[in-house]
Amino acid sequence: MPTDLPNLLTLSRIAAIPLLVGLVFLRTPVGDILACAVFSAAAITDYFDGKIARERGVLTAFGRMLDPIADKLLVGAALMLLAGMERLSPFGLLPAIVILLREILVSGLREYLAGIKIGLPVTRLAKWKTGFQMGSIGTIVAGDSGASAIGLGFLPVSWLGEAGLWVAAALTLLTGWDYMTAGMRHAAAEDMAREGAGERGRAG
C-alpha cells in the first residue's frame, strides 16, 4: 500500500525536491546548509525504505516501481539545480552529465527488460556508486558558503564534492557498462529465440 512506512519514505524523497529547490534559490549560507540537510535526509531514506520493507515483509509492487523513480528524480533535480545556479564548475559539470546519461540508459534498459519479464538487480558496486553520488551532491549543495556558516570555511568543500562526483561518475560508467552488457545479452537471447521460432514455423 502507498501508506506503508517504506513507501512513505520513498514518497518523501519526491516531496523533498521542491523544498531543496527553494532553499538553494535563497542563495544564503543558512539556506545552503538547510538544503544540504534536506538532501541528506532524503538520500538516507533510500537505505531505510528498503531495509524496513524487507524486515517487515511489506515489499510491494508500488514500492518497487516508485523507489528507482524517486532516486532518479532527486538526483536529476539536484544536479540540474546545481548546474543552473552555477554551483558546478566545468570540472564538476562533466561527471554530472555522465551520471544523468547513465540514469537515462539504465531506465531504458529496465523498461525493456520489464517487457520481457526480466529484472535488473542492483549490484554491490551500484550501491557504492549511490553512496558516493549522494555524498558528493550533498557536499556540493552545502558548498563553501554553507561550510563557512558552520565554521568550516577553511575546507575546500565544493572542490571535495566535485572530486567525489568524479568517483561517482567512474563507478557510474562501470555499473552502466555491466547493466548494458546484461541488457544486450538478454536482447540477443530474445532475438535468437524469435528466429528459432520463425524457422520452426516455416519448417512446419
Automatic annotation (TrEMBL):
<keyword id="KW-0808">Transferase</keyword>
<comment type="similarity">
    <text>Belongs to the CDP-alcohol phosphatidyltransferase class-I family.</text>
</comment>
<dbReference type="GO" id="GO:0008444">
    <property type="term" value="F:CDP-diacylglycerol-glycerol-3-phosphate 3-phosphatidyltransferase activity"/>
</dbReference>
<comment type="pathway">
    <text>Phospholipid metabolism; phosphatidylglycerol biosynthesis; phosphatidylglycerol from CDP-diacylglycerol: step 1/2.</text>
</comment>
<keyword id="KW-0812">Transmembrane</keyword>
<keyword id="KW-0444">Lipid biosynthesis</keyword>
<keyword id="KW-0472">Membrane</keyword>
<dbReference type="InterPro" id="IPR043130">
    <property type="entry name" value="CDP-OH_PTrfase_TM_dom"/>
</dbReference>
<protein>
    <recommendedName>
        <fullName>CDP-diacylglycerol--glycerol-3-phosphate 3-phosphatidyltransferase</fullName>
        <ecNumber>2.7.8.5</ecNumber>
    </recommendedName>
</protein>
<keyword id="KW-1133">Transmembrane helix</keyword>
<dbReference type="InterPro" id="IPR050324">
    <property type="entry name" value="CDP-alcohol_PTase-I"/>
</dbReference>
<keyword id="KW-1208">Phospholipid metabolism</keyword>
<comment type="pathway">
    <text>Lipid metabolism.</text>
</comment>
<dbReference type="InterPro" id="IPR004570">
    <property type="entry name" value="Phosphatidylglycerol_P_synth"/>
</dbReference>
<keyword id="KW-0443">Lipid metabolism</keyword>
<dbReference type="InterPro" id="IPR048254">
    <property type="entry name" value="CDP_ALCOHOL_P_TRANSF_CS"/>
</dbReference>
<keyword id="KW-0594">Phospholipid biosynthesis</keyword>
<dbReference type="InterPro" id="IPR000462">
    <property type="entry name" value="CDP-OH_P_trans"/>
</dbReference>
<dbReference type="Pfam" id="PF01066">
    <property type="entry name" value="CDP-OH_P_transf"/>
</dbReference>
